[in-house]
Amino acid sequence: MKKVLFSLIIVITIDLYSCSIIEIYRLLNNNTEANKEDITPEEITRQVAFHWTMQFYNVDNVKRYLEEGYNPNKSRGEQGYRDGNPLFIIATRFYSTYYSTLMEEEIPTPLPDIQIFNLLIEAGADINMRPYVWYRIYTSRNMHIDARLNSNTLTKTGRTAITENELRELEIDKAASINHFISDCNRILIAFLEAGADPDMRGHPYPYSLEAKRARITEEEANEYFSRGTRPINEAIKKGMWWESQVDILLQYTALDEDSLVAARESNDPAMIEKITRLWNEQSINKIYRDF
Q1: Is the pLDDT of residue 159 over 80?
Q2: Cβ neighbours of 230 (radius 10 Å)
Q3: Comparing 124 with 287, which gets the higher pLDDT?
Q4: Three-point CA angle 113, 114, 115, nearest 5°
Q5: Is the C-alpha dihedral spanning 254, 113, 118, 110 positive or negative?
Q6: Orientation of helix 164-194 relative to helix 112-122, angle to 10°
Q7: % of the chain surpassing 70 pLDDT
Q8: 3-state secondary structure of 106
Q9: Separation between Cα atoms, residue 58 and residue 15, nearest integer Å
Q10: Which residues pair with 153 in a beta bridge?
């Protein structure tokens, strides 16, 4: 209940530098993180405000905050480590073009997520502070696609498809929503790669878990887990041919390794197994010619 109250107060007072925000934050977090960082109450307030304005894709406020000197590498929310980095907020979510298209809303160009991403990069955000590429790939899971494929609900109306016309509309709806979902995920992935994010920075799910949140994991501790993690390309391969586009995007920046063959088998997708085996053989032959 306290956390719900915290969220409501933050939303209402997002532009106010009030002591209440600081005190609520300290109450919920026992001031542990602030003590570790030797951080001032004023800076806590700035980081909280920065976090929430990004959550609501408020491009104008993000721009204003950065112009006022807010740290592009630091934000603060309720999720501890997860909320401690602005670029990570961009990596975790995206502006849904599908729902905007469905509701016939005007889609801004560039999209708000990309506008904010560009502002952060221009302000000096560290593109390799965390394994952003890995996280975007790892969390773009097939369960989202499976849930849509197994649904019999029309997105626009919320009605269950029953009639022949509704069933036809449902199939079109499913295909469109899945294509938009993949495209939206890839838009963020491409933005990070084009800005210089390391395509091979390893990642690990533990630092983003509830257990890690409760343990108040630090950046240094998280990096230890990441160093023992997996490569983004292999996480993309594991997801099968629904995500072939992510594999192709990554192969513009990196190469396969022996674990890629293992990842292909783990996908249980014959087409992905065939694709990766073929590409691995081609890559191996090309290496022989280069070394000859």
Answers
A1: yes
A2: 19
A3: 124
A4: 95
A5: positive
A6: 10
A7: 87
A8: coil
A9: 12
A10: 160
